[in-house]
Amino acid sequence: MTLAFLGAAPTGTAKASGLAVTIVSLSSLTIFLVPLIALLLSYDAIVGEVDRGTMALLLAYPVARWQVVLGKFAGHLAIRGFAIVVGYGVAALALQWVGDDDSAAWTAFGVMVASSILLCAVFLAIGYFVSASVRDRGAAGGIVIGVWFFFVLLYDMALLGALVADQGRTVTAEVLNALLLLNPADAYRLLNLTAASDVSRFAGVAGLGAGAGLSAHALIGALVAWTIAPLAAATALFGRKQL
């Protein structure tokens, strides 16, 4: 709600709706916080219970291992999804109260809420993969912090450095598109900051969104694939894990 009110302050001179400014602010905040919280929730979902001995007790019941993984994943996603909907819903109510009726921006806001839940699912799945891959909770915690640091901070800096050094010789538009899809945080960023003309203009990424040539369907598909692949790998690893 604070971002909704404070973010609307510059709209008188920037000619952008308060909702568009809020989408930019919340999207930028989401990229940092949602992946980190999702990873911290999921990194010990499997290895932690194995260490504590509760996993053996859980598997004594007539449930398959894949059901345990998917059930825990669904529970974590439901909790985080509820928190995202409530948190962003407060911002939406605040903007509705001040009379922001930009229909295009409201559509973009709905996309942002849904894609934020999908981004959470991506990093929950990655956390489950890490948790199923290691035998020590401490190792899992260190790995997920590294994963967050890589995808959220290092990847874009390395990509920018490569683009500057390459000068368009090797990294063509098609290669750049593939590199952007290889980072779920970039897919989320492009999906939300180019979702509406007001949002992309205020975010300063209108040119990137037009030049990337990535449709919303491609970006959503990348996020879905980033959810399914690590979760499937975590399920397979846990199925062969010795307790």
Summed up:
This protein is an all-alpha fold and 243 residues long. 82% of the residues lie in helices and 0% in strands. It has one domain (2-7, 16-238).
Description:
The protein has 243 residues and is mainly α. The chain has one domain (2-7, 16-238). Mean pLDDT is 83; it is low at 5-15 and 202-207. The chain has 13 helices and no strands. Helices cover 82% and strands 0% of the residues. The chain has helices at 2-7, 11-14, 18-42, 47-52, 54-59, 65-97, 103-133, 137-166, 173-181, 184-193, 197-203, 206-212, 216-240.
Task: Give the rounded overall mean pLDDT.
Answer: 83
Task: Write down how many β-strands occur, each being a DSSP E stretch of 2 or more residues.
Answer: 0
As residue ranges, the low-confidence spans are 5-15, 202-207
Distance between the termini: 46 Å
Classify the helix fraction into a percent range: over 70%
Helical segment count: 13
Number of domains: 1
The H/E string reads HHHHHHHHHHHHH
Strand content: under 5%
Largest sheet, in brief, is: none
**Computed Rg:** 20 Å
Shape: globular
Q: Helices and strands: which structural class? A: mainly alpha
